[in-house]
Structures are given as C-alpha cells and as structure tokens.
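Annotated sample (chain length 150).
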Amino acid sequence: MFSTAYSVARNFTRPVAMSARLANGTVRCGLATFIIVNKAGWILTAGHVLNDLALLQLHTIEKQAYDAKRAAIAADVTLSHKERKTQNTRLIYNPEWITNQSFWWCDDRAVMRELYLDKQADTRSGYYGRGGITRVSQIELLALPQCFPE
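Output written by the structure step:
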C-alpha cells in the first residue's frame, strides 16, 4: 500500500530551495517541498516556507529608514564629529535584516505569479503544516502531462 501511494505521490511532489542574504553578509539556505495540485498550475506548500518573503518586505522598510537617518546625520553640518558619532550609535542596526531572497521552484524558469497564504492554518498545524495555497499561472516547466497520466 505504501509503495503504491509513493509511486503516485512522487509524480506530484517537487523541491523548492530558498536562500536569504542577511545584512551582515551571512547567507541562509533551506529546502522544502511543494505539491502540484492540478494541471492549471496550483501548488500547495507549507506557509512557513514563505516566511522570509514577508520578512524581506519588512526588513527593506526598516533598513531604508535606518539608512535615511544615517544620511541625515551625515548631512547635518551643525553637528560636530562627536555628536554625529553619538547619534549614529543610537540608531538600531539589525545585522539579520534580509537584504536579498531567492526561491527555486524545481526549474530555472519557474516564477510565482500569484500567492495566497493562510498563516493561521500553518501556525496551528505545527510541524506538519497545512500550508498556504500558491498558484503559478504558467507551469509548463513542470512537465505536467507526465505528472498527470491519462
């Protein structure tokens, strides 16, 4: 029974590789999977797989604000060198700001066109996750005819 289930499921399960570069230069990488739901290109993955995507948006805003404050301090001609240094040390720099992110959806040509995330379902389900639904509108790259044998 398991071998039969595996032989079917392996046709619909694909890898997704993620990487994120942090402000301190560190690169974090991870692997996960997604499941092809239908020929239209709908896929399903755990919502937490996309956590860094939301963080990138937040971190971009935070880092831009930080950079703007540093630039304003540097441009303020009324401040002495010591005052500039003091004001700069009061700014909060997060070395773990995500500055760049990449997803690889099992093929170099894959692009996520639409994204729907159900964070509550992912959080509640713990380790196994029930994931957010994601849709790729043109997913010919996954060789769908092979995935959906007639």
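Annotation: The beta strands are 13-22, 27-36, 42-45, 98-104, 114-115, 132-135.
Annotation: The longest strand covers residues 13-22.
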